[in-house]
């Protein structure tokens, strides 16, 4: 890894030496050191604004949440009542929290197995020359830019039991028995929620894929066609491998979004009925801001973060690894 | 080669027949996507009585009072204004700081580079909800409650990870030869960044800006907690308050939803080209 990354920035150095008169011979051996120092300094200058913003408003609050999670704290004054790991052991006896884990897993499974393949299928369809494809692209992506609050309020009314659009439509075609509960039923709330999530989020992944697809040279497909490769073979042996980095990022984002799902559920059900749609983030806000158990709520947020972190590190280590190497090595690996 | 000179009619017909299922699929998905939006738009023109007696049909008569009363109220326009100010501020701040950092992280070799990058990617795992309590306390300490900066700064900070990851990816794709050439012509590091990399990455900047604007525009929990007074309520906060206030008047809520969607959809209609065209960086390597 270090080999390929260091070689690029030093390439200009070689070119510069070749330029007559620009480098005094005496300074020859010392230049790389100076150059490296200069690089380091400019790197610092360039990254400091982002790091300061990020550190103060993201890392410090997170650190504080970690600290507070070892206290029994109502959220007022400073925390004094130390409980050690009490909040954490309580988590794993809390049926609501264990249910959060299970429901989170379900949503991730749904997303990877249904939503992303669906998004990929739509991206591949819309990557062809089709009449009106710009309109379809625009329409499929549009819900992503609507706020969760708008989406939540809207679908709350559409799936209102009895007089919402969904039940009216089912009634009109004689399928009254299918609807009825939607967000109000313990067994129907998650599937309904997943439907809404697909409506809202698949367009985002589709756009990522479309962007990736545009980066695949058309000549590859032409060459494959000349060699007699069919549609499926072209998809399997050109599209999939060359789109793989995009697919990996998209799956990663999807998992993280699922773990952190909050706004949409909060607006529609606030986790109900009877915790049936509660997510980790919902539990945390419920405990923190409704029951004033800030220490326990912080423990939930820490666990939530740790789950995301472990997942992300494992994912980067084993799945994204090739993507973070230099472009040349990636090309070589793919060939 | 044979197809370019003249396409036989039978071939055209066969091709059209082959693409028919594609159109059917797209049409079905399109109906699924557009129905909730159209239903909302039309329902806003009905009275609540009409909604229950005539849920599918066009309104008769068309009721415009839902829309006009909202458009005549200062509260709605104030929400639009504060959402705009906050979104623009947060986006400028995120993109400017992220572009600099992404440049260093993409094209400099320095010790700790991967560590810094990992730190930022870890930020993807900090949703607002997780940090919201300590963040709230921090903002209170700095006196930033009921102040637009109290929302702009955290939004910019939380927007950094995605922006940096995307921009770094784009910056890396720009070939090293280009930087060599620029250096040969006497370009400094910053000069290369400012005069060559940023213009080349304009589509990418468009993409991340659109993402940042959208995520700020849609942010809900943070403005809800930071703004206790209606002065700075953003649109999502406004909708939620409105829904609580007019829970029984469903048609009015539909009208509010339409008006709340309109700026976002209009913005998207304008910025769409940039978003999609943004990813043609592959062409630069040719």
Automatic annotation (TrEMBL), chain B:
* Subcellular location(s) of the protein: Cell membrane
Coiled-coil residues: none
Tell me how this protein sits in the membrane: Multi-pass membrane protein
Where do the TM regions start and end? 20-42, 85-108, 115-139, 151-171, 192-217, 253-271
Check the UniProt entry and state the signal peptide residues, or none.
none
InterPro entries reported in the protein's UniProt record: MetI-like, MetI-like_sf
Which keywords label this protein?
Cell membrane, Membrane, Transmembrane, Transmembrane helix, Transport
Q: What is its main location?
A: membrane
Record-annotated ABC transmembrane type-1 domain positions: 80-271
Q: Which family does it belong to?
A: Belongs to the binding-protein-dependent transport system permease family.
Protein name as annotated: Carbohydrate ABC transporter permease
């Amino acid at each position: 890894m270090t080999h390929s990354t260091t070689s690029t920035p030093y390439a200009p150095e070689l070119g510069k030496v070749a330029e007559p008169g620009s480098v005094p011979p005496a300074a020859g051996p010392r230049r790389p050191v100076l150059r490296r120092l200069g690089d380091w300094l400019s790197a610092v200058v360039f990254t400091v604004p982002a790091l300061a913003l990020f550190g103060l408003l993201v890392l410090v609050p997170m650190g504080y949440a970690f600290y507070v999670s070892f206290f029994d704290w109502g959220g007022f004054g400073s925390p004094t009542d130390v409980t050690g790991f009490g909040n954490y052991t309580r988590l794993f006896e809390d049926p609501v929290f264990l249910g959060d884990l299970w429901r989170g897993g379900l949503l991730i499974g749904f997303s990877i197995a249904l939503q992303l393949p669906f998004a990929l299928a739509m991206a591949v369809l819309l990557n062809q020359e089709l009449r009106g494809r710009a309109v379809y692209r625009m329409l499929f992506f549009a819900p992503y830019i609507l706020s969760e609050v708008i989406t939540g309020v809207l679908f709350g009314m559409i799936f209102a039991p009895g007089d919402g659009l969904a039940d009216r439509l089912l009634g009109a075609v004689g399928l009254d028995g299918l609807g009825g509960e939607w967000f109000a039923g313990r067994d129907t709330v998650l599937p309904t929620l997943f439907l809404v999530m697909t409506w809202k989020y698949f367009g985002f992944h589709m756009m990522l894929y479309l962007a990736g697809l545009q980066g695949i040279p058309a000549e590859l497909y032409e060459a494959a066609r000349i060699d007699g490769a069919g549609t499926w073979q072209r998809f399997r042996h050109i599209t999939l491998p060359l789109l793989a980095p995009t697919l990996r990022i998209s799956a990663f984002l999807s998992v993280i979004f699922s773990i952190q799902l909050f706004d949409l559920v909060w607006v529609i059900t606030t986790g109900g009925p009877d915790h049936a749609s509660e997510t980790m983030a919902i539990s945390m806000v419920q405990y923190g801001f409704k029951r004033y158990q800030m220490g326990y709520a912080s423990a939930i947020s820490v666990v939530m973060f740790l789950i995301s972190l472990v997942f992300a590190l494992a994912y980067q280590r084993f799945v994204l690894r090739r993507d973070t190497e230099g472009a040349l090595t990636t090309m070589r690996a793919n060939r | 080669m044979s197809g370019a000179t003249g396409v036989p009619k039978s071939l055209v017909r066969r091709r059209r027949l082959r693409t028919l299922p594609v159109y059917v699929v797209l049409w079905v998905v399109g109906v699924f996507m557009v129905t909730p939006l159209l239903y909302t738009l039309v329902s806003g023109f009905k009275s609540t009585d009409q909604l229950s007696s005539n849920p599918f049909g066009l309104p008769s008569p068309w009721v415009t009072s839902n829309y006009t009363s909202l458009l005549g109220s200062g509260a709605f326009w104030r929400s639009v204004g504060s959402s705009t100010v906050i979104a623009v501020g947060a986006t400028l701040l995120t993109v400017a700081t992220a572009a600099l950092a992404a440049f260093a992280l993409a094209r400099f070799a320095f010790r700790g580079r991967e560590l810094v990058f990992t730190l930022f990617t870890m930020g993807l795992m900090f949703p607002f909800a997780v940090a919201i309590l300590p963040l709230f306390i921090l903002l209170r300490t700095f006196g930033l409650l009921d102040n637009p900066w109290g929302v702009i700064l955290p939004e910019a900070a939380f927007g950094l990870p995605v922006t940096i990851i995307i921009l770094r990816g784009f910056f890396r794709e720009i070939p090293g030869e280009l930087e060599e050439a620029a250096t040969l012509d006497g370009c400094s590091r910053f000069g290369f960044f400012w005069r060559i990399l940023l213009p080349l990455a304009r589509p990418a900047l468009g993409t991340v800006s659109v993402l940042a604007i959208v995520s700020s525009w849609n942010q809900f929990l943070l403005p809800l907690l930071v703004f206790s007074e209606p002065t700075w309520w953003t649109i999502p906060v406004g909708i939620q308050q409105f829904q609580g206030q007019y829970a029984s008047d469903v048609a009015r809520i539909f009208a509010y939803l339409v008006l709340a969607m309109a700026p976002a959809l209009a913005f998207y209609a304008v910025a769409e080209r940039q978003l999609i065209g943004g990813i043609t960086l592959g062409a630069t390597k040719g």
